[in-house]
Amino acid sequence: MRLNTPQRLLNEHEVANSCSISVLTLRKWRSQKRGPQFVKIGALVRYRPEDVDAWIAEQKAQQDVALPEVER
């Protein structure tokens, strides 16, 4: 069985830095099932870049829905 893994996985420090949050916040969100999807490899936690991008896009979409339209 051959796996095709063309992209590298991100560690929690890389994801936290790219989102401008602390690693502790990312860990808290992970425990609360709030953050991006992650992959466990033994004791390691890794993130697929496309999962992080999708999660960020979801946050933007949720903000757009939550904001009331301003009447002009």
Sequence-ordered SSE layout with sheet pairings:
Layout: H1 12-19, H2 23-31, E1 39-41, E2 44-46, H3 49-66
Antiparallel strand pairs: 1-2
Number of helical segments with 4 or more residues: 3
Share in β-strands: 5-15%
Largest sheet: 2 strands, antiparallel
Q: Roughly what percent helix?
A: 40-55%
Low-confidence stretches: none
Oligomer: single chain
The class by helix and strand makeup works out as mainly alpha
Mean pLDDT score: 86
CA-atom Rg in angstroms: 15 Å
Number of domains: 1
The strand order across the widest sheet is: 1-2
Keywords:
72 residues; mainly alpha; 3 helices
Report on the structure:
Helix 1 packs across helix 2 (23-31). This protein has helices at 12-19, 23-31, 49-66; strands at 39-41, 44-46. The relative contact order is 0.16. Helices cover 49% and strands 8% of the residues. The termini are far apart. Strands 1-2 form a two-stranded antiparallel sheet. It is mainly alpha-helical. A hairpin with a 2-residue loop joins strand 1 (39-41) and strand 2 (44-46). It has one domain (12-66).
